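cron nightly-structures :: item 1 of 1
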Amino acid sequence: MIDHCPPQITQDHLNKGARVYVRQSTSRQVRNYPGSTEYQRDQKIYALRWGWREDQIEFYEDLGLSGSSADRREGFQRLLADIHEGKVGAVFCTDVARLTRTPRTFETLVCLCRHHRTLLAIDGQVFDLNDPVDRLLVLV
């Protein structure tokens, strides 16, 4: 069911995959706050509503790993690789802090998304990082 698809999403985006990124910083958070993990996984609902098929949606998870370094986060590294290979129409997450907490890693993500025209969907709001206003709004 396509539900009020945001105007930034084009058929080109829908022809590529959707990626849902899930991260919790510590093992204790994963154990004590399973609702947060589920809420992050539920970002998939937006992808389905906006036209991606179930088989196009993949989850990349780094549970129990801090966002302060991307080096040890396999899920995040796979996400960057998929964007670089042009496989991703949109990345879904609950907030930017789930993706990274460092400006350098965030800038890497932004550059890849811009180059490959990958959208960023944060808790149901879509951003086209090639639009300077959207780029600023992502940081707010």
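cron nightly-structures :: done
The first strand starts at residue 17 and ends at 24.
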